[in-house]
Amino acid sequence: MKIKICCIASIEEAELAIAAGAWAIGLVGKMPSGPGPIADELIAKIAEHVRGRGQGRFW
């Protein structure tokens, strides 16, 4: 089974998701309806931190 955990808002939450076995994580930024829960800069920071880790979609 592949599990995606969405709305990750910090490096700590990303670490918890990976430790829990997440195959992918979701980071929500700007949307047509308005700003997302986290800034694009933080998304980039989290993505860089998890890149190459996990079992699935952690580029």
Q: Would you identify the regions where 5 or more consecutive residues have pLDDT less than 50?
A: none
How many separate helices?
Answer: 2
Q: What oligomerization state is this entry in?
A: single chain
Number of DSSP strand runs: 2
Indicate the percent of residues in helices: 25-40%
Compute the number of structural domains.
Answer: 1
Tell me, rounded to a whole number, the average pLDDT.
Answer: 85
* SS strand fraction: 5-15%
The largest sheet, given as strand count, sense and whether it forms a barrel, is: 2 strands, parallel
Radius of gyration: 11 Å
How does the overall form come out from the CA principal axes? Answer: globular
N-to-C span: 19 Å
Strand order of the largest sheet: 1-2
Report the order of strands and helices. EHEH
Could you say which structural class the secondary elements and strand pairing correspond to?
mainly alpha
Q: What can be said about this structure in brief?
A:
This protein is mainly α and 59 residues long. It contains two helices and two strands. It has helices spanning 11-19, 40-50, and strands spanning 4-5, 24-25.
Task: Tell me what you see in this structure.
The chain has helices at residues 11-19, 40-50, and strands spanning 4-5, 24-25. It has 59 residues and is mainly α. The chain has one domain (4-50). A two-stranded parallel sheet has the order 1-2. Strand 1 (4-5), helix 1 (11-19) and strand 2 form a beta-alpha-beta unit. The longest helix has 11 residues, at 40-50.
